[in-house]
Amino acid sequence: MINEDRVLQEFLELVQIDSETKNEAKIAVVIKEKLLALGFTVEEDDAAAKTGHGANNLIATLEGTAQGPTLLFSSHMDTVVPGQGIKPSIKDGYVVSDGTTILGADDKAGIAAIFEGIRTLKENNLPHPTIQVVITVGEESGLVGSRAMDQSLLKADMGFIFDSEGPVGEITVAGAGQYRIISKIYGKAAHAGVNPEAGVSAITVASKAISRMPLGRIDEDTTANIGHFEGGKAFNIVTEYAEVWSEARSLVMDKLEAQVKKMTEAFESAAKEMGARVENNVMFMYHGYKYTAETPVVQKVTAAVKRIGREPEYKKSGGGSDGNIFNGFGIPSVTVAIGYEEIHTTNERMPLKELYKASELVLAIIEESLA
User: Fold this and answer.
1) Is 139 a catalytic residue?
2) pTM higher than 0.70 for the full model?
3) Strand, helix or coil for residue 269
């Protein structure tokens, strides 16, 4: 029932509005106007003040006309660079840029699909539960918009994040949570050739600690990495200070917590043995989640994918998305593929057939929520 020409024209309109991450002001105004025109009540949080980005997150609510779980649909309004002056065109069944910029299908294809699904719902006067549409800022800057969101504005029972490459029908049912650690090691300087015994090498402490850690692929759910290591001023000075940046990720929060403990304790024990001191700054980034085919949110989207004639494919991700944040807020959420290709490059392109199918999927999810 979707209007293919309408969703295409809206997508073309959206990608031509500059919205590189941190500069979302212009597109936020347009999106808010579109949501109001669709009959939503639109609220803004204070994400701009908290993050320094150009706009707030938009949290829009459409009251239901039928019983069913309150649904959340979400995409982000910001893009990566270079994303100014995008000139889209249609070539061989794809929307492409002119090659000097990205296209911005990540994630304006998601926004266009959500709007078209709801627009079709309303013009056909179809019954629906209460629907929330959340359009975030700063996703491309490390999920800063959703992390700063006022979660008291959310009342959804389950969420569907339209923001993933791959053909429509792929569903990310597991996403890794993440911690970052900055470890500062304080040793003692000495002349490396005259009296090294008087010094305590912070580099040696860090090296001992790292050698004791499980790193890389820990198990099917968990990874860990040392991303940055620096210290020292000269060849002939025992290094008094070193700094190590590390991270851990896991689909299972208990495993993630255990891995972080192993990493911080490795630094602490090595420092104690050598007479050094360490400060571990542990930063929680976002929540992990791991669902099965029996989880209600997965059941709903699975049925919806089949309704539009596709076969569902379940995936897991080691990266983060706004879906991690919504899960951390207690809203069971999955990320669904919407078909864009070669994102974050000037070769980015959007298959027309996937844009249309993504719009159909929005409507199908709403219909399945009443089943």
Assistant:
1) yes
2) yes
3) helix
